[in-house]
Description:
By secondary structure, this protein is α+β, with helices and mostly antiparallel strands. It contains five helices and 24 strands.
Amino acid sequence: MKAKQNGKLSQSLMITILIIITILVSVTIWLSSKTNESEGHGHDEGNAEHSDEESSEEGEIQLTSQQMVEQGLKVAVASTGLVEKLTTLPGKLVVNTDQQAHISPNFSGHVEQVNVALGQSVQKGQTLAVLIVPELIDQQATLRMAQANLDFARQDYQREQQLWSQGISAKQDYQRAENAYRQAQITVQSSQARLNALGASGNNNGRFLIRAPISGVISQKDIVVGENVQLADQIFVIEQLKDLWLEFNLPNQFSGQLQAGQKIDFKVNDSEQAYRAIVQNLTSQADIQTGRLVVRAKLDAQAAELRPNVLVRVLISEAPTKSALRIQKSALQSIEGEDSIFIIDSEQKGQVRLKAQKVQLGQASSDGQWLEVISGLTEGQKYIAQGSFLLKSELEKDEAGHEH
Length: 404
């Protein structure tokens, strides 16, 4: 009887254990499904947060203070300053005609030597070329004959003077010798003066030396060995380049804005380097073809790129100077075809958030360094004045990465 009861107890115990195991397995499966569901929701939320973060960072760059220093970024504060509207007029650098020499020969002759080349610097009095001049041969021979006659007349005069002082010769013989001597002197002086006036000497055997009348640079040369040149031929032009002029035509609306002594700025066409010139004069009559006044200004400085016939851009103020909110021109970048700058959006614990900001611009300053801001920026706002092109490159790189 006991054995039978023990068997029943063992069977009941086994059933109870199976039920418990079944319950435990069910609970485990239910908990596992809840965990996976929770993780799935968490992943979706994380993706949403990441998406929001990407959306909020569009057009923004975050750097540390150290990175800004390493990249050479310079911060400036938007403030008011002087700006003016500029008009660009075409101009040209020309030689000061008061510092120029046109050289023609004083005789017609045959070219024996040419001693200088085009573009060569020469000094005043330097020999440029040598001509053989038949006419000069005759004049030099006449001078030598006159000098020989002078020597003979001097000797005769000195002899007659001595004889007359000793009472040997008559006074009229002494006076005749004196008159002949004076006449010979005049003849020599006349021949010598004529040669000197033509720039020749009496002992070059028919050779005429063409010399530089001023120091400067040979800008034109039209002479070669072996050719014949005439009196009217212009064979050399010498220019002094240290005093170049700026010349341009001034429209009528600006006629009252320029006067002698005023300083104006200009730039060489292929350069952004600004130079200055001082107005010398405005012609009293307008140019026949354009109807504009011709302005000539003297360059205030010298530089290698400032040469005769170089084309330049003259900067003329079109409106009175005014004070306006302005930024440095170096800060400006074109982003998506819009004028933009990078402003400092926030600064916290060494982290700097930069944002691309579109701006509407107005006039530029006379030196070209400042731009008026009409909208998109407020006074006192910080912006990147130098190095903004690096930020633009970084922004474009990030946008390209997001597209992929």
